[in-house]
Design a protein that fits this description.
By secondary structure, the chain is mainly α. The chain has a single domain (2-136), classed as Four Helix Bundle (Hemerythrin (Met), subunit A). It has helices spanning 2-26, 35-63, 67-70, 74-89, 91-101, 108-136.
């Protein structure tokens, strides 16, 4: 079961990166004809992120080294803080995409901000991966 959850965790992470990348590509052109696809990819971002949280918590508390191990690692705490920050950053783009889908017109300023936030989410994932690699190597333990 631990192996399957590790696999599922990685699939969700790759799915999240793919969906965010697709969003970023769709946000570069004329978005009106792409609204349906944009909404689908935004939903995929939410599903993948939710799956990452659920599977990650199962791994931490039940299937890996245990919560005490992870919560005494600064890299793990950094990884979680970054994930929460990325989740918070994703709220505005999701709300805008939903409003555009319902017929609201996207002005250039809003579109630029949404593009910047999605790009920032992708950069954040880069640092999450750095924290994950540090965790895997035992970097960041204290206490």
């Amino acid at each position: 079961m631990a192996t399957f959850l590790a696999f599922l965790h990685h699939v969700a992470a790759f799915g999240l990166v793919a969906a965010l990348t697709a969003e970023l590509v769709l946000l570069r052109g004329e978005i009106a004809p792409q609204m349906r696809r944009l909404a689908v990819f935004d939903a995929a971002v939410g599903i993948c992120a939710g799956l990452l949280v659920v599977v990650g918590l199962l791994r931490v508390f039940y299937f890996e080294k245990g919560a005490a191990y992870y919560f005494h690692n600064a890299a793990f705490i950094g990884k979680m803080a970054l994930f929460v920050a990325m989740a918070a950053l994703s709220i505005y783009p999701t709300l805008k995409i939903l409003s555009w889908r319902k017929g609201a017109r996207a002005d250039e300023r809003e579109l630029r901000l949404v593009r910047r936030l999605v790009h920032t989410e992708l950069v954040g994932i880069f640092f999450i991966l750095l924290c994950a690699a540090m965790m895997a190597r035992g970097v960041g333990f204290y206490g």
